């Protein structure tokens, strides 16, 4: 039995997202108490109804001039809308997901307007479309300052990323620029634009926009990516050399190896894993059946993975996964790089290989279960992450001295003054 549910998917979403990104314990517990294990309809209703109520309360607070209270409440509504639609992932897109996502977009816009200084919604030109983005200044200073660009992974949007990356960065003196790329947020949900591996071509236009802003010091632009964004940030840094630093949380070398770890946990034999993605029909049928019986794996691979990559079968997913690799790219990274390794996160299984393959100044930062930060992206102890990688990044980024390996350590990359 977990904190709220026996269903592992519900427990993960309620604790890691609902609580991990700023939900109130009593509020989350009250929502979860109304939901039966595994009932996706009740889940959506419970969380979205709570978000609707908070959005209304925030509107009333804003109308009375209570800016801080309104902002905080809008941000919780934003979070609960996100939690409400996570079990609904998949193609074709569930109309309820779109309804909740559009409400989430609206309340986040209101929260951004109530920020101090206010956040600015952007549409960044990208090929034949635009990337939705928000720029937040750290303060009202006229001097240029450091910027943290945050990139997402498989299943969050820039709105949740603000809670996990943007707000902590602002509190530590960084401007922040958050965006969703192909396979993420609006581009996936509304436009059907799927994920791609060449993230340097996605981040390049984002850096172009950042460099046009007088608030941004062009010599102090860092890029951070969480979850699949650990791969995406590293891939971007390999081709985008205007970055002063890069943080990969975790150090994900390729999706295929992470997928092997997931399949290994499902009991797939090593002999089969070694043949990926080339499998006979009987093996594929067996693996598909195993996936269907495992709710967590079905959501992660079929509902989320197939959808994000625009594929419809397990063999196609396995094949497209091989395109997302850092082979041949790590030596092209020139900026100081922080690689996070998280004890119980399967996506961290390649963190040491990433670290070993880097030739630029580098740091390996290990997060452990002993400090409650050993799960995926330290979601059950984000405060520790915010303390360690972000502390010390406020000043300029001179060449790092040495390439340390830290365990729950401090001052990564040696770039602080």
TrEMBL record:
| Species classification | Bacteria, Bacillati, Actinomycetota, Actinomycetes, Geodermatophilales
**Source species, please?**
Geodermatophilus obscurus (strain ATCC 25078 / DSM 43160 / JCM 3152 / CCUG 61914 / KCC A-0152 / KCTC 9177 / NBRC 13315 / NRRL B-3577 / G-20)
What are the boundaries of the region Disordered? 398-417
Q: Report the protein name in the record.
A: AB hydrolase-1 domain-containing protein
Q: Name one GO molecular function term.
A: catalytic activity
Domain (AB hydrolase-1) spans 162-374
Q: Which PANTHER family match?
A: CONIDIAL PIGMENT BIOSYNTHESIS PROTEIN AYG1 (AFU_ORTHOLOGUE AFUA_2G17550), DIENELACTONE HYDROLASE DOMAIN-CONTAINING PROTEIN-RELATED
Q: Which InterPro entries match?
A: AB_hydrolase_1 (IPR000073), AB_hydrolase_fold (IPR029058), FrsA_esterase (IPR050261)
Its family remark reads: Belongs to the AB hydrolase superfamily. FUS2 hydrolase family.
